[in-house]
Automatic annotation (TrEMBL):
Its cofactor is FAD. It comes from the Bacteria. It comes from Rhodanobacter fulvus Jip2. Coiled coil: none annotated. PANTHER family: D-2-HYDROXYGLUTARATE DEHYDROGENASE, MITOCHONDRIAL. GO terms for molecular function: FAD binding; oxidoreductase activity. This is FAD/FMN-dependent dehydrogenase. InterPro entries: FAD-bd_oxidored_4_C, FAD-bd_PCMH, FAD-bd_PCMH-like_sf, FAD-bd_PCMH_sub2, FAD-linked_Oxase-like_C, FAD-oxidored/transferase_4, Oxid_FAD_bind_N, Vanillyl_alc_oxidase_C-sub2.
Amino acid sequence: MTDLRLAGLAARLPGLRLLSTPAELEYYGRDWTRRWTPAPLAIALPANIDEVQAIVRWANEERVAIVPSGGRTGLSGGAVAANGELVLSLERMNQVLDFNAVDRTLTVQPGVILQKVHEAAQEHDLIYPVDFAARGSCSIGGNISTNAGGIRVIRYGNTREWIAGLKVVAGNGELLDLNRGLIKNSSGYDFRQLLIGSEGTLGIVVEATLKLAEPPPPSQVMLLALPDMDALMQVFALFRQRLSLQAFEFFTDIALNHVLAHGAQRAIDGDYPYYVVTEFDAADEVAQETALAAFEHAMEQGWVSDGAIAQSESQAAALWRLREGITESLAPHKPYKNDVSVRISAVPAFLHEMQDLLGREYPDIEVVWFGHIGDGNLHINVLRPEGLAEDAFIAQCEHVTKLLAETLHRHGGSISAEHGIGLVKRAYLESTRSAAEIALMRGVRQVFDPNGILNPGKVMTAD
């Protein structure tokens, strides 16, 4: 370890695990974007809160930037370390600390994987309802830092709805104990909610108290094939009116083809332009008959061309794979991603304008889109053609993203629905936030991190 600053950190914390081989620097210095060449100073893996505080204090003294790191499944460059930063990985802080039966809360360290949280809740016949396809690799700390959403936002909301309390190390090394699990707390500003979604720029989450819920009633999963884009919102309105929805997800035929090529099984014969996977309460025969009647009505109206309903848990999992397997099936292509949102009422008009924009600007490029139509969130994946240089591809995508951001601004939408801003979208922040808001955000950042060491350059430029 030749860097004198790192030698000083190692001397201050003899038990701290530090990594610095080229393979380790590459592995921990990037996220799923794969767009930046990782170049961190080193990787620190603290084992407890005291070590996190000591690292942050050292970083302030040495003016070393810190990039907090969880599962690094992010898609916006929020966990990238490309400029000599110290990556502070929280993967060793991965324990479930406490379950409180009266409060129905689970207290965990930030490195706990989401799947482990689900399993811990299930041990007590409860659920932690935030869920998405990366559940087996993403960490709770990362989920909190981006206010992750997922497939059940329509029923349960985003991560912030389920955080009862946070312990956070601020940019000066001070430990903040935020909200302490209280249901009602009107004693001033709620810094807990401010930290959620801040992408590691205000503080480092070192402990979280999560709210748990009763399991939902028995459900059924249905796959629907739709003839056109307008039918999406018509079917959604019908199903939301008649059923108690847990999820309502859509994808295109192009997305389906990628998932099928990746090993999933076709559930409906024939080819259709749009598909929906929906899950809804089906606790008794009345609820099941209501769902069937809704399906038949949609067929009669011409909104649905075909459908399939799961008759077992394995069939339900197979139907869900058609939606949840999309991101994994596209990963080898290293797609350029947009993650956008508009109000549900604005979805129909936005969809048409977006489709026209993508068709015009990407005439010879494959675009795969899908999303959480029930909460207005769309994911757009642009696949680089063979023979097109990566720099030219990124430049074209960024040009289109600028146009997309302008479209979103007209519709009152957001350039980031649930993936965060990170490095990828900071140039488009002004399409979502006013100049006055951004100025206030800079001021808040200065208060929490006076020396600007926490994830600099993410969300906003450092100046």
